[in-house]
């Protein structure tokens, strides 16, 4: 018996009678992380990692949520289920499923790079591994953390010295917090769009030590805005909200910036190759570390990854899913905000 199968509602564990990141309402859902394409409203019961509770409740409200610490296990109809760090964003988890001596792991989204805002990826040995493949092509190789944020700091510093704000468009959940924790605060103040600020607060309540990043409406000395790094979701691009920063430089942080021409298509001054997903070499390392001889590949460049795995002697195939791409951030930005704040001051 396969421990996980693809159904019209989402990935399903037949013996455990639960779904993993289902995209339609189900009785019981195990959630790998709080991005909108993996965590949806309407399920009868939710199970997720304790580290992600604050963000999940912001996203989904008062849901019937059970949480587990990483490595803690529960029995679900005779199936042993535990959650293990995925390194993707705060609270992201791989789902380990054990039944009658067989172990499957559903990874959700993951990355192997160091990230000060979430627990690092933990390889989990298994017989069958379910992997994402968002960036499953050889072209996608990420720069090292030090080199990447040195580029961001240099861009910000040059703009600050010229008296121009630096607006960096990045996903509100995960990427914005990673940037905030990694840039040089000596350059100037960091300002957060409301969609980012709400999630920054959730990170702090979860025990993540983030530097200060006020909303623009909380800055008394407006002259400071000319030296600021502004963290904003992609949906803010071209919005009236940006007018308060006057003449500014803008950048875009995404793994898609690795592809020539995407910076131009986004209409920004700078592109930074920053992703919360594994790049091509990291996908290979993660799969190998599991020891799995059978691999299911979900969204992204799934067919290319399946072909590569088969060439190396593994039993590989795809799972059809409805997971999206949160790299651009447009999907979720409208779902997170502060109802006490007017939209223009978000």
TrEMBL record:
Keywords linked to the UniProt accession: Exonuclease, Hydrolase, Ligase, Nuclease
Gene3D superfamilies recorded: Ribonuclease Z/Hydroxyacylglutathione hydrolase-like (3.60.15.10)
UniProt region (Disordered), positions on chain: 319-346
Q: Name one GO molecular function term.
A: ligase activity
Q: Does the keyword Hydrolase apply?
A: yes
Biased composition, class Acidic residues, residue ranges:
323-336
Q: Which NCBIfam families match?
A: Xnuc_lig_assoc
Q: What is this protein called?
A: Ligase-associated DNA damage response exonuclease
């Amino acid at each position: 018996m396969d421990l996980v199968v693809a159904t019209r509602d989402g990935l399903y564990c037949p013996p455990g009678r639960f779904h993993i990141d289902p995209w339609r309402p189900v009785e019981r859902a195990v959630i790998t992380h709080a991005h909108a394409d993996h965590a949806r409203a309407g399920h009868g019961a939710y199970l997720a990692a304790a580290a992600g509770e604050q963000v999940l409740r912001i996203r989904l409200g008062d849901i019937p949520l059970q949480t587990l610490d990483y490595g803690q296990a529960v029995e679900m109809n005779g199936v042993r289920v535990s959650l293990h760090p995925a390194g993707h964003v705060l609270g992201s988890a791989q789902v380990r499923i054990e039944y009658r001596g067989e172990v499957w792991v559903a990874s959700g989204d993951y990355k192997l790079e160091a990230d000060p805002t979430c627990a690092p990826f933990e390889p989990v040995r298994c017989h069958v591994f379910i992997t994402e493949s968002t960036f499953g092509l050889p072209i996608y190789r990420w720069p090292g953390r030090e080199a990447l944020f040195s580029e961001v700091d240099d861009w910000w510093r040059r703009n600050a010295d010229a008296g121009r704000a630096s607006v960096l468009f990045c996903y509100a959940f995960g990427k914005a917090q990673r940037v905030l924790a990694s840039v040089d605060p000596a350059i100037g103040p960091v300002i957060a769009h409301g969609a980012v600020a709400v999630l920054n607060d959730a990170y702090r309540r979860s025990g993540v030590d983030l530097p200060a990043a006020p909303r623009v409406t909380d800055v008394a000395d407006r002259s400071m805005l000319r030296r600021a790094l502004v963290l904003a979701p992609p949906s803010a691009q071209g919005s009236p909200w940006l007018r308060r920063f006057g003449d500014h430089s803008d950048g875009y942080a995404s793994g898609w910036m690795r592809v020539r021409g995407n910076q131009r298509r986004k209409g920004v001054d700078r592109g930074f190759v920053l992703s919360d997903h594994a790049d091509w070499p990291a996908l290979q390392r993660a799969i190998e570390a599991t020891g799995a001889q059978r691999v299911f590949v979900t969204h992204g460049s799934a067919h290319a990854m399946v072909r590569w795995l088969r060439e190396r002697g593994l039993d590989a195939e795809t799972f059809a899913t409805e997971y999206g791409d949160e790299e651009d951030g447009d999907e979720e930005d409208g779902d997170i905000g502060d109802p006490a704040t007017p939209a223009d001051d978000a």
